[in-house]
Design a protein that fits this description.
Elements (H helix, E strand, L loop, with lengths): L1 H8 L2 H18 L8 E2 L24 E3 L5 E3 L8 E6 L4 H19 L3 E6 L4 H11 L8 E2 L4 H6 L3 E2 L1 E5 L5 E6 L9 H8 L2
Parallel strand pairs: 1-7, 4-5, 5-6
Antiparallel strand pairs: 2-3, 4-8, 8-9
């Protein structure tokens, strides 16, 4: 009798159901696999803001990050103004190289009504990033944090730095994986033109 029970469980419909469930689990898990983050290489830039081209507006997946108090924010918090979302990390050489120029340009862009949203992807963000910025004499440059690097995963982009240019509806209109020469002559005008 027990043998009959085992054989009845191995019938074709039962095997098909198991196979379908296993395959479905594999398909569901596959998109969740993350590409490891990497710093841009010499072939990834840097580029002038004038070289970054706009594309048709694209709705972004939900992206969340935290401020220094641990309050969670998303791009909807910046809706109504054009914005630059800039993903970076303290361990990323090209990020560190370009950060002072972005920090110097950020106040001018804010005066133009453009939000600058730097998001550090360090897993110990709030404890590591402020002292790091202070060592670079950038303690007034406020960064947000994504300690799980969920923004890069949601964007399916493993290269840092990563810069997205967003319209007033928080839709992506341009993207550049790799460093940007934020201190190029005319950088502010090029960005204003891109986000107009």
């Amino acid at each position: 009798m027990p043998q009959r029970d085992i054989r009845s469980q191995l019938t074709a419909p039962s095997l098909c159901r198991r196979t379908v469930l296993i395959m479905a689990g594999t398909l569901i898990a596959a998109p969740m696999a993350r590409k490891p983050l990497r710093a841009a290489t010499a072939t990834d830039g840097p580029v002038s803001p004038a070289q970054i081209l706009a594309h048709a507006a694209q709705i972004l997946p939900p992206l969340t990050f935290a401020d220094s108090n641990g309050n969670e924010l998303d791009l909807a918090s910046f809706r109504g103004q054009p914005a630059i979302l800039h993903l970076w990390a303290t361990w990323c050489g090209p990020c560190v190289t370009e950060l002072p120029a972005l920090a110097a340009l950020a106040p001018k862009l804010r005066q133009d009504g453009i939000a600058v949203i730097p998001v550090a992807l360090d897993h110990r963000g709030p404890e590591k990033v402020p002292p790091f910025l202070a060592r670079l004499n950038l303690s007034t440059f406020t960064s947000f944090y994504d300690t799980r690097a969920g923004t890069a995963a949601a964007l399916e982009e493993p290269t840092l730095p990563l810069t997205l240019f967003l319209n007033r509806e928080a839709q992506e209109i341009a993207r550049h994986p790799g460093p940007v020469r934020w201190d190029d002559p005319g950088a502010e005008a090029s960005i204003r033109h891109l986000l107009a």
